[in-house]
Specification:
Helix content is 76%, strand content 0%. The protein is mainly α. It has one domain (4-330): ABC transporter involved in vitamin B12 uptake, BtuC, CATH 1.10.3470. α3 packs antiparallel against α10 (234-256) and α4 (97-112) crosses α5 (117-139).
Amino acid sequence: MISSRADASASRLAPVLAVALVAAMVASLHLGLRLYGPGTVWSGLRGAGDTDALIVSTLRVPRTLIGACCGGLLGLSGLLMQAATRNPLAEPGLLGINAGAALAVVSALVLFGVAAPGGMALAAFAGAMLAMVLVFGLSSLGGTGMNPVSVLLAGVTLAAMTSAVTQVLLLTDEAAMESLLFWLSGGFADRDIGLLWLGAPMLVAGLGGALWLASALDALRADDDSAAALGVEVLRTRVLALGLAGLLAGTVVALAGPVIFLGLVAPHIARRLAGRSTHAALAVLTMLIGATLAVLADILARLIVAPGEAPIGTVLALAGVPVLIAVLRRGTGAAP
């Protein structure tokens, strides 16, 4: 039984996490290879000032906003995947969804010359959806259903295969390799702020969809028969949740390239903080936690190897790998 006390706790946590996100975003505008004071940041936000203010407005503001948006999208995507499959290991990066979306984008550019942001976004969506269908289809071949371990193995296998095909395609087109190599490493730097016209509506739609599916996902915490007895259309709920999760993950690939581990970490932190709350409460918390983690990881990526910049995936792995190990040690059979 879902605790009303847990939901009350979640409602108190949400404003705290919102403040933490704002603080992280403010810090992101100040911190980097050069430390800027509040005056410079304010000048950059107003579109006035010197070269330093220009750096704030054209580089740090876009990467901060896109990072927060991508973190929220990945958090919601991971939560939906874990809830729909009752698999605590489900996450777009680990299950090959990101790699499938990346392959679709590279294929669209190399084979069909699609370079427009809208076309690349559609390719990312299609690749994410196809990869998700393949992962869950492959994991069911052995007759074990959506067993957490078989799903993880299918995802790792698909990710390895699609990554290899992606590398082959890039080697056949040197121009494409030069233009996409940085994007394929995943990250929020040097992204066009206009991408938020794609990311922000998808974030709103993702949160709305998660809230709409929340009561059905609560019922899915039990077995399928119990959920069906409560009036939940199990197959429809699962397809809708996984479809939405794939769209959110594909959006992130279109915005920032493949970004791993956020979809795994954010839902687990939300559950640890809020206990057995409803999925409506968890969706809000997970979105805020994912956005905050993404912004903090982006700050660390600028600082830990300064004057260079570390790949965002490396920074996120520092948090993601311990969580993955903890989940495996605890056992993967329990519903998330």
